[in-house]
Amino acid sequence: MNNLVLDETILDQIGDALAGPGWTVIPNFLDTATVTELHTLAHARREQFNRAGVGREAGHQVRNDIRGDSVLWVEEDDSAMQSANARMAMLQQHLNRSLFLGLAELEWHFASYPAGAFYQRHLDQHRQQDTRVVTIVQYLNPQWQESDGGQLRIYLDDGSQVDVTPYGGTLVVFMSDRFEHEVLPAIRERVSLTGWYRRRAV
Ligand SMILES: O=C(O)CCC(=O)C(=O)O
Ligand SMILES: [Fe+2]
User: Fold this and answer.
1) What pLDDT score was predicted for residue 62?
2) Domain boundaries in the chain?
3) Which of 40, 72, 109, 190 is the least crowded, having the fewest Cβ atoms under 10 Å away?
């Protein structure tokens, strides 16, 4: 996927899903070459990752019992992330045009969960002040097997749950304020790009 154009059908599929059930999973959203490229990039930058925390500002703390990942935020002017940033900008524009979501910006980071790490059940919006509208997760795990674990468990409105295996290239999109979810432990390192389209704070 080195050209920057996202297939209209995929854009429509994501838009329709967000307007309907509020979530979707798209296998092979990224092709193998792109998964490998981004996975290699994440590894090359591993010294720059920081342990992720919970809570905001003064309340921010690292809690292994809640989440065990390390993250590296993606900058807008990161030349190695130009295509990836362009794809996300295209999706943002599509969602604004088709659903009038008023998405003003994207914040996103690489995340690495070492073997055994997890992220307990949570909602991506922290309290009322949070402006996160849509959550996007792209998995960067070449040759992942279901038995490797690391599933994203999404708790749906009807009380059921769905487990998404983090195969390289799979995309998950959901409305940030609607679905609690958790990351189950894996038997090897699990890498992803996770982001949030935000509304401007009022
Ligand atoms: O990596 C995933 O599957 C989800 C990560 C997540 O829930 C988060 O970073 O808030
Ligand atoms: Fe989350």
Assistant:
1) 87
2) 8-198
3) 40
Spatial distance between the Cα atoms of 101 and 176, rounded to a whole number of angstroms: 12
Q: How many whole angstroms from 101 Cα to the centroid of ligand 1?
A: 22
> Which of the 8 DSSP states describes residue 159?
S
Looking at residues 25-35, what average pLDDT do you find? 96
pLDDT digits (tens, 9 = 90+) for 143-158: 999 999 999 999 999 9
pLDDT tens profile 71-114: 999 999 999 999 999 999 999 999 999 999 999 999 999 999 99
- Which is it for the CA torsion 24, 25, 28, 32, positive or negative? positive
Could you tell me if 80 and 41 are in contact, meaning their C-beta atoms sit under 8 angstroms apart?
yes
Whole-number Å distance, alpha carbon 81 to ligand 2 midpoint, is: 22
Instruction: Tell me the C-alpha distance between 93 and 89, whole Å.
Output: 6
Tell me which of 161, 180, 194 to substitute to probe ligand 1's pocket, judged by most ligand atoms within 8 Å of the beta carbon: 194
Q: What is the torsional sign of CA 74, 110, 80, 13?
A: negative
Instruction: Tell me if 124 CB under 6 Å of ligand 1.
Output: yes
Tell me the percentage of the chain whose pLDDT exceeds 70. 95
Distance CA 169, CA 44 (A): 19
Q: Is the CB of 165 under 6 A from ligand 1?
A: no
CATH 2.60.120.620 fits 8-198, yes or no: yes
Name the helix (H) or strand (E) containing 190.
strand 190-198
